[in-house]
Amino acid sequence: MDNRDYYWLWFSNIQGIGYKTGKAFLDYFMDPENIYKAGDKELKGFIDKYIRIPGVSKDECYGRIVKSRNYNYIKEKIQILTNKNVDYISMGSNRYPEKLRCIDMPPFGLYLMGSRPELLYKSSVAIIGARNCTAYGYRYAEKIGFELGINGIPVISGLARGIDGAGMRGAYNSGGGVIAVMGCGVNICYPGDNIELYENIKDNGIIISEYFADSPPEQWKFPMRNRIISGLSDVLIVAEARKKSGSLITVEHALNQGKDVYAIPGRLDDKLSEGCNKIIRDGGGILLDVDEIVEYIKGKNAEVTQEVNDYQNLTVMHEIREKQEKQEKQEKQEKQEKQEKQEKQENQETQENQEIRENQEIRENQENQEIRENQENQKNQEIWEKSPERKIYDAIDLFPKTIEEIAAISGETVDAVQNTVILLQVKGLIKEPSINMYVKQ
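Structure (tokenized):
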């Protein structure tokens, strides 16, 4: 994770702040970092004017945000993900899949577990359908997944029983990539009877979710995750579905996102074929040959020549940029230290030469000069003692404090504190052990 991910991780896990409320914050503040660093007056004014959360007062909403705005809160979340071997990609990261940026309600971030995150950037096909499917539907879903897999096309689904699991098993058995989109934390296998498939996907695929690790499966989360399934896919295939089913919700998302939807036709008297036949009646494609899908995806990949879709390359670029920034910072610091040392040495040599030239003849003048220097130092010390810079320095101790806390203790404005802490850092009087937290050296 980079610095931007930290703020997004904090923002997307504030208790009681749902997607719509979070979107209102982002529309106003533009970025989670701006929300984190917003002054109390601006934050409270925005909440009073724009935020309405049923059952939650404005003061309570404000309190939740302020309470969560601390480094330990973010550190705790990061530690949980690290312990469970879960990665995180925020909407502010260059690793965030571009296909998801274009959908309605793109997730603020994705939690990942598995060995092949690069699959998120490839053209892929979603295979979905009924949980209580027929042997016919299961067999064809598995066959379609297998043929897509051997052609290097990732298969996406929700790891549900029936058609979803069949398509994924086919892709896995062919050695192809599999993407499972969960309606719970990525470290939870749901349903539990797909545990073997879940473990296999971790070895040759990627499991993703917009919900934090350990988030339990809840009914309202599954329709929400369907927009991600359709958003990441380039083609959606429905094998079997009832007239009213969750699969048709995913179809609706796909159509709104401009994706191609195919259905496997079924018997007119079969309830599990009603959804597929409706898709075909409404203008969806009839899937008669998987090769048609394979050729379409291959052609699509050939057209997208400018798209960066390799996760490993993005990660390497990010690491190189971080290394360059760290090296530049170190070189700048070394240059400053060298310059200060050189200036100190030059001043010392000048003083020694002056003492030699003046020798004994100017001893009296030297003593007078020392008196004047002492007086000047005392005067400078008095100025320092009374200056706002000293008040701000005294407000900082060995325990990390934010800009706002320092301002409150010193009685100075936030702007004054922000400018002064930079000067104090340059002078080596204080340091910043973590973002927006300051302590004495």
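The domain at 98-305 is CATH 3.40.50.450 (Rossmann fold). The first strand starts at residue 87 and ends at 90.
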